[in-house]
Amino acid sequence: MTSSVSSRRDARRNHERLLREARQLFAERGIDAPLDELAARAGVGAGTVYRHFPNRDALVREIYDSAVAELHDFAPEILGAETGWRSVELYVERLGAWVADSPYLPAVMRRVAELDPTHRPGADFEPLVDGLVARAQAEGALRADVTAVDLGILVDMLGSLGQYGGEYLPFWRRQLTIVLDGLRARPGTTPMPVPGQAFAAFHDMSHAKGPRPAPR
Amino acid sequence: MTSSVSSRRDARRNHERLLREARQLFAERGIDAPLDELAARAGVGAGTVYRHFPNRDALVREIYDSAVAELHDFAPEILGAETGWRSVELYVERLGAWVADSPYLPAVMRRVAELDPTHRPGADFEPLVDGLVARAQAEGALRADVTAVDLGILVDMLGSLGQYGGEYLPFWRRQLTIVLDGLRARPGTTPMPVPGQAFAAFHDMSHAKGPRPAPR
DNA sequence: TATGATTCGGAGGGTCGCCTCCGTTTACCC
DNA sequence: GGGTAAACGGAGGCGACCCTCCGAATCATA
């Protein structure tokens, strides 16, 4: 699991540089962009790419790992908020903005899920998010029929707006506003048409065996 | 522009079959899936594929055209609703469900936009949607700071949930509920953080020259 | 059914991207 | 500086995919 780090400075530098350029390349040209072009962009020979990452999947996995590490950094602020509702706001806003600003993320996530469908990305976070939802609902601020899975999906939806490019990011907060208003407990809230799902059920459903889904 | 239709029944049958299989193939394997495989799935030789569609882009365009035709079918119901608010509901729900249920659509739309960035997909619809928004706002049902562009983006967001596969579709209405509640005019609505965009501005922004965005 | 025009099938040439291999270069350590 | 181990570069083999080509098969028409 732990990647062995070379003791040579040039090797470390190339490794980092390749990761950085790969994120950008994947964002621009898709997760199946030619690795020879990655080599060119990183100013490196093709051999160097394959020494650091035996194949495309290894590269994708490492990008994924670095994203998960970033994800951990959000936890303190989100979970440490004054109120449960503020936690919900921060959860949706911070994570949504992060995904929207990291256009390579959705494809990387999807590919990792295909490589290992049993892997549950943030399983250790799930109880925390459940707790966060319960707290906000206990306050009477978050509508009672919303689940933690709903929140995660809303983050995905907001993150998908990264497709419009960086110039859209300022406007992104408009959709955020609408979604957060829709999450608020209020008189006259529309009842949910179907019951929600638990994390496990949602995971099993969306990772059901089946052909690779459409890139978006 | 009008595609000439062959007088031979086998040719027409193969053309339709190729379109049908292409939609499914693109949904499963992405818009760059091998056309040789399309030929295999359609039970047809490679030559037949290329006689009907000179290249991948022609195929994509024709799928796009058929989608636009479908789109037109929604107009009467959406615009003919009793109230402006009901129009908004139908707009978001019908189109969102359509996109979510057509996993090939987002990639096809994006590719056509790349092929011809000046092309504005539903330019003739834009005034209608603007009118629909104005009507719902005049009723006091739709929040006053929402624009027609916002509505279109929300449809996109809801449509992106097609990525979870067909089994998710029933649950999809939960997110729809949240979004619609967020659109409702109410006391205590959170003010928008930035002003909205007109269709033209949004189009120019999201189609700014630049490298191909990440497939999702 | 016979005829001619149209479409079909699939082998194969050309291109592009993946990945390996090995002579050369670079970094670390003394 | 000198020696050694590690990393680098990029040419090239290989396979996958795109697309063409033409003899064979099929369809419309009479």
From TrEMBL, chains A, B:
Keyword Acetylation tagged: no
Gene3D superfamilies to which the protein is assigned, alphabetical: Tetracycline Repressor, domain 2
SUPFAM superfamilies: Homeodomain-like, Tetracyclin repressor-like, C-terminal domain
DNA-binding region: 34-53
Record domain HTH tetR-type: where: 12-71
Record's keyword terms, sorted: DNA-binding, Transcription, Transcription regulation
Listed InterPro entries: Homeodomain-like_sf (IPR009057), HTH-type_TetR-like_transc_reg (IPR050109), HTH_TetR (IPR001647), Tet_transcr_reg_TetR-rel_C_sf (IPR036271), TetR_SbtR-like_C (IPR049445)
Protein name: TetR/AcrR family transcriptional regulator
Pfam families referenced in this protein's UniProt entry, alphabetically: TetR_C_43 (PF21597), TetR_N (PF00440)
